[in-house]
Each structure stands twice: as C-alpha cells, then as structure tokens.
Specification:
heterodimer; A: 170 residues; elongated; B: 358 residues; alpha/beta; Rossmann fold; 2 domains; 7-stranded parallel beta sheet; 6-stranded parallel beta sheet; 13 strands; 44% helix; 18% strand
Chain lengths: 170, 358
Amino acid sequence: MASDSADRPDIDSLVAELRARVEARRAAGEYPPGLEESLEARFRHLLRHRITPARPFDVRAQLARMAAALPLQRARIPLSSARPAAGALHRIIARAVARQTEGILQQVQDFAEPAGESITALAEAVERLDRTLRDEVIPALDAVIERQAAAERAAAAAAAGEAAARGRGA
Amino acid sequence: MEIHQILATASPGDPVTDAALDLRAVLRRIGPSEIFAHAVDGALEGDVGRLADYAARPEAGAGRDVLVYHASTGEPAVCSFLLERRERLVLVAHPVPPAVHPVGVDPGADALPAHGLVERRALRQRVSLALAVSEPTAAELRSLGYGDVAIAPLPVDSGRLLALPSEPATVAHIDEHLLGPLVLSVGPVLPYTRPDLLLSAYHVLVTYLVPDAYLAVVGPCPDAGYRGVLESYRLQLNLHRAWFPGPAGAAGLAAWFRAAAVYVTACDHEDAHPAMLDAMAFDVPVVARAGGGAGRPAGAALLLPPDDDPTLLAEALAEVLADDGTRRRLVDGGRRCRAEAAPERARAAFLAHLAGVV
C-alpha cells in the first residue's frame, strides 16, 4: 500500500488537533462527564443480556382473521366424515339440535360483532398514535434537542471566550 | 496443466471471492482456470464450482494441475481436501479475521478463525509457493514455519464499480430519505468491524456536532442476535437516521458511494481495506482507525489511533464534513493511494510469483 507520503505529518498534526478539540469540549462541559463510558456501558449491558427489540405485532393481520370468522353460521360447521355413513349421522344430529345451535351462534355473534368493532377502533387509534409519534413528535423532539445542543454549544463557546478575555485582562 | 483456485466460501461482495474472480480472468489468458469452493452462495451457483466438482473432473486424477488456495478463516473440509490432493499447491494467505463474538448461535463459526492458523501450519509441507496479501500476514506465516513468503496484494478493481450506473431502487430510497450529509460504512456487520463504535460516534456527531448527519452501514449481518442488540442500541439512542440496509449488490454500492459525504470504518482489521479503496475511487474522503497497521493507506485517509474513542471519531467526521481543505487533501491522497494500489500491479505481481512454480 502507499508508503508514508508528504501528507502524513499533516494528518498526524490534524489528529493531534482533533484530540485537543475533544479535550477542550470536555473541559468546557459540552460533553457530559463520562459520556464515552456511559455509551460503552449501555452497549455492553445490551450485549451481555442479548436485549433485542420486541417483534412488532401485526394487529391488522389478526383483525382480518377475526373478520373472516364472522358471521358465525350453522352452515359453516362441517358435517362430513372420513368414516362411512358417519356423515349421514352428523346431518341427523345437526338437524335435531339446530334450534339450540342457532341460539348459541346468535349469542356469540351478538358478542363478537361489537367486540370486533371495538378492537378495530382501538387498533386504528394505536396506529394513529404511532403515526403521530413517528411523523410529528419524534421530529419535533429532534428539533428541540438540536436547538438545545446548539444553545449549549453557543453558551460553552461564550464561556470559553469570557474566560480567555479574563485571562488576557489579568 | 491447468491452474484452479480454491476457496472455503464463495459469496458475492466478499473481498476474497472478488479477488479470486479477478485473478481467474487473468489466469484464463494462460489456460483453463476455474474456482472451486466448499460453500457456494446461490448467486454464484454455476459460476463457481464445489470441491466435489473438482475431484470429479477426469483431469483431476493426474495431479498435474496447480491449485491456488485462498486461505482466510479456516475450513476443515478444505484443509482435508488439500492434504489429500497431489497437485502443486500455492497458498495465498489472507488475514485471519478475529473471532466472531459468541453472541451468535453457531459455535462452529466462532471456532473457524482459530482453525485458520492451525490449517496454515498443517499445510506447510504441502505448499510449493507461499504468498501473503500484506506484510503482517506474511510475518504471521513466517512465525508458523514458512521460510520463503512473498507479498502479493489483492487486486481491488474499484474502476469496475465506478463505471457502474447506480441501482435505481437504492437511488430512489436515498433520494426520498436522505436530507443531510451521509456518513457511509461498507462491510460485514460483525463485532470485529465495530458497528457499536460507529453508532456511538454517530450519536456524538448528531447530538453535539452535526445534527443533520445520516449514517448508513451497508453490508450483511449474518448474526441475527447481534443485529438485534445493535438495533436495541440504535433505538435507545434514538438514532433513527442511522440505517442498516443490509447487503447491496455492486450497482447498489455504487449508489451508496455516490451519495456519501464521508466514508468511515471503525474496523481495525485489514479486510476493511478494499472498501476504503472503493470509497477513494468515488472521491469520498475516508476516516479510519489505524489499528490494522500495514496495508493502510498513509496520507490517503484520516487515520485515527486504534483506541475506542467515539468522541475523537465523531470529531474527525465533523472536521471532514465541515472543512473543504481537509476534504480536498483526503480526496487527493485517496487518488494517489489508488494509483499505487492499481489492480494491474497486483495482478502482475501475482503472475510473476506464480511463474516460479508452473
């Protein structure tokens, strides 16, 4: 690869200057104390405990499955059988208890319809909240953080300037 | 006589595979030449054969061929294959990557780097010519008992990537989402490439220095567990402008390099080097850690000490993003570095060494 070129001393002096800049920022309080250590500790903690984000739950797919199960109907109960002649027996039993079956299905349907509508409404509300969070709250929070960081940088620079001026005046 | 190359794993975008494909084109000017690998990625199926395919060839029995083995991480199956063959063997030693952190679910994969050195020692008596892609790797071979080791750097043909048009889907994604300067890193997302340090440095960069910067770490992440931990870290730091888009093909990479304002690598291993040369081909200034030692471009990149200091890395990125003079100097240095690392030179050096055994 490339041998030492004429630029190498410049790069080395630039690195030294960058180091000095980091130290100056640290001394001026631009970087919170222990910044590097806290970042490293946070990552080590996640790594040690293998903490991974929760898998997103696909609520829409589950709502679609729920909707597909309705309406509850007697006709959706299979009467066929793998055993010979058992199909005919199932049909006879189904006719015999049709009134009771229909009653149970109606009661469950009366519960399932409003429950499904409620869950759908809740899912839509959560999705709206998520969209608001992603599209409005987080960018707004970012802007606030950026403004705060800029203000802190300006304050630190002003403090450093005042200190330098006091030093010159002394 | 035919000259064939042997790899442990052949996959697109892998620097060793890319080098073997490049050298195959050169070797085919001399005679028949193929690549055979223990594991072949689906994308290379048909282009790269398997070890069993080599053994099944009628010419293979005669033992008159020359086998060029690119040794990187160890692979016991390849080592056994080579020890059983009679062909003359040329070893091209690539740096052995550091052990993969055992977050992964594949203990066998964690053991492979250690096997790389064992394998090199085992093959010593079989090797007719020992080549190493860099001086540190050559020194490692010598320490394993290899007497005469020559240096043959990898041919990195960044010009080919530069000539490619950008992949439209990647360009569309970048155009839609990128609203500030892009800090780019390319390579496998594994513990030894230090994506955690990149995220920490990026956190410092956007929180204290350049709030509108973006980060993209483009490359495969074979360890889902480690990927999840990185994602947790990214979310905890609220770095939603840090992207891990996964692996990219050549045209996709070209799109990323064209969008980049600065290229960064926190990896202190030599295999980060080809991607740095690619960045230089696109006139993207490079910030790197100097832990890799020799093989790093001097004067061509803003080389930082190998310590794990995210604030220094962030400060270096901010400097390159803000200062046109520094950018120009690094871009000029990158051009000089590329000229010195021209693939034609590497190909010629490889052939000159090979001429000694054929």
